[in-house]
Give the backbone structure.
Amino acid sequence: MADHRTPERACEGCGCALSRYNGGNCCSTCRRSLRDLRRNSPAVSSEVWTDAELREALASWDFGVVARLLRQRAGLRQEDLAHMTGLSQGFLSQLESGDRQLTNVNRIIEFLDGLETPAELLPLPSRRTQAPALPGDEPVGSARGGTADRPPTVNDVAQVALWASPAMTESSTTVVDIGAIRAMATAFQVADRQVGGGRLYGPVSRYLRDEVAPGLLAAVGGSTQPQLFAAAASLTEAAGWMAHEAGDDTRARKHLAHAFRLASSAGSPALVGNVCASMSHLAGQLDEHDHALRLADLGLDNARQGPNIAPLVARLLAMRAAALARQGAKQECLSTLRSAERSLADSNSTTGETEWLSPFDEGSLASEAAACLAALGELAAAEDAARRALGLRGKDRARSRALAQLTLAGVLADAGRLDEAAVLGLAACGLAASLASDQVCRRLDKLGHRLQPHQNVPDVTAFLSELTSVRGKQAPDDSSTLWPT
């Protein structure tokens, strides 16, 4: 019988067996040694990079020609290039002869970074955009992302692909059908409203990894780059919210940071603003309200750069108001909410492209307003806004309806109307049983804790009993260890 086992590969440096997860030709020890040697290798002078033929080879990603021309123009040996890039001399020889191709994302990054290729020569968008930090995220300006002092490198664009799929292979550069992505995004959005993002996080992540990420490098520099990067940014943002719904806020932050960089590379200020709104919302969920306010303001700055998109401006203003409410800035919060209402009422004046932007309607604004007013202690106004939000959410929006019920229940509980709050809690339990939403579960638990001291009220007793039943049927929640705060 034929042996279908993968042949064992050996390190070209020391001959030890390579892990099947190692996509290179050297073990980690030899790779570190090569990097140490690289420090003593000759550098490529800035004059060499002005060569027209070399620039053309870089633009077309013909790395075999790049290696050959660098040796000729800079007087380097293949051994020098090996020391500089961490690639083996044997591989470089085959690369120059055309027998091997350099298409693996990890190797491309290593090759270009090792040669200290000037950023302006990389076939990537030259946008001096800084990804804003979220609570618990890595500091902006680290090796992972672009900074305000330099354009993005190939590493920035490959971020989402490498994070989602660390073992991308030579078949990774494929053309992606943007129409198919659009159809999938719509399908995910419809399903999310009905069953919650927790159940969809896995499928969306796999779709990003297997279908979208492989086409990013293939699209760089081409006519489809803005469209594909915009589509990838939108889906990556959705994955962030689905991770949040699944209770994994560490991954949620990572997805949103990647979405920001992709939106920047797409050249769309509106899409950057849209991602900022999501980051602001998440920061608020993490009780990091200073960050939430800063991110909302950054989003507004971007959203106002291009044609008017009233729903996006309204969403960002609502996020700003939410942060102000938690900071106790009552008058500024109320003024910002009024501005959001005016912007949304002026939606007919929208002239910008809204594809790939998150929807934001009257029901969305009413929900945000109710939460803001409740935080400010304006219970009567909060009740009116919460009832309006609930009235605008039909059976096709199960998660939004459950959240609206819980917002109203919280307002009524604060007003001492415990029986009414418990009845709404019971209704939310009925929806939660079919939802995979950490957000809904947390809100239910919060209401249960609020009503626990009043078990003598019959409706409260019924709610607490149903809550215990519903939460007992769900998987144990260990997400608290993933919250950075």
